[in-house]
């Protein structure tokens, strides 16, 4: 899916921000991003919490669509889905990008007019 087609409604945006509000969940995202296709057992040694605790954090990340899983036999392979993060970044940064792009064009026009 093209990331410009990925849209988040307000409830989905809230879910992403709530998921990212936890240090443990951000750490899980980092670990999964660094080891795409890892399984839950690969993540357990990085945390001082029970398997159930890790699974609860993973469920929050999956509900926010930040982590997707793929069933491979009895295991679930985990992957980070960056589309929600890109959608949030695009929503909050596009108007600033437009502002600065306009300023750069103005500057370019002034420089070219002066030479």
From TrEMBL:
Question: Key word Ligase present in the record?
Answer: no
Task: Return the SMART domains for the record.
Answer: HTH_ARSR
| Organism expressing this protein natively | Niveispirillum cyanobacteriorum
Give the Pfam families listed for this entry: HTH_20 (PF12840)
UniProt cross-references to PANTHER family, sorted A to Z: TRANSCRIPTIONAL REGULATOR, ARSR FAMILY, TRANSCRIPTIONAL REPRESSOR SDPR
Alphabetized Gene3D superfamilies for the sequence: Winged helix-like DNA-binding domain superfamily/Winged helix DNA-binding domain
Q: Does the keyword Transcription regulation apply?
A: yes
Its protein name is Transcriptional regulator
Q: What does the UniProt keyword field contain?
A: DNA-binding, Transcription, Transcription regulation
Please give the superkingdom of this protein's source. Answer: Bacteria
Q: Which GO terms describe its molecular function?
A: DNA binding; DNA-binding transcription factor activity
């Amino acid at each position: 899916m093209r990331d410009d087609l990925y849209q988040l409604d307000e409830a989905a945006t809230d879910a992403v921000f709530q998921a990212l509000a936890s240090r443990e969940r951000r750490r899980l995202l980092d670990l999964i991003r660094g080891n795409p296709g890892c399984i839950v057992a690969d993540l357990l040694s990085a945390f001082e919490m029970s398997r159930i605790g890790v699974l609860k954090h993973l469920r929050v990340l999956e509900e926010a669509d930040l982590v997707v899983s793929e069933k491979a036999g009895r295991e679930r392979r985990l992957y980070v889905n960056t589309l929600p993060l890109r959608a949030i970044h695009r929503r909050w940064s596009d108007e600033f990008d437009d502002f600065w792009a306009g300023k750069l064009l103005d500057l370019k026009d002034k420089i070219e007019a002066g030479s």
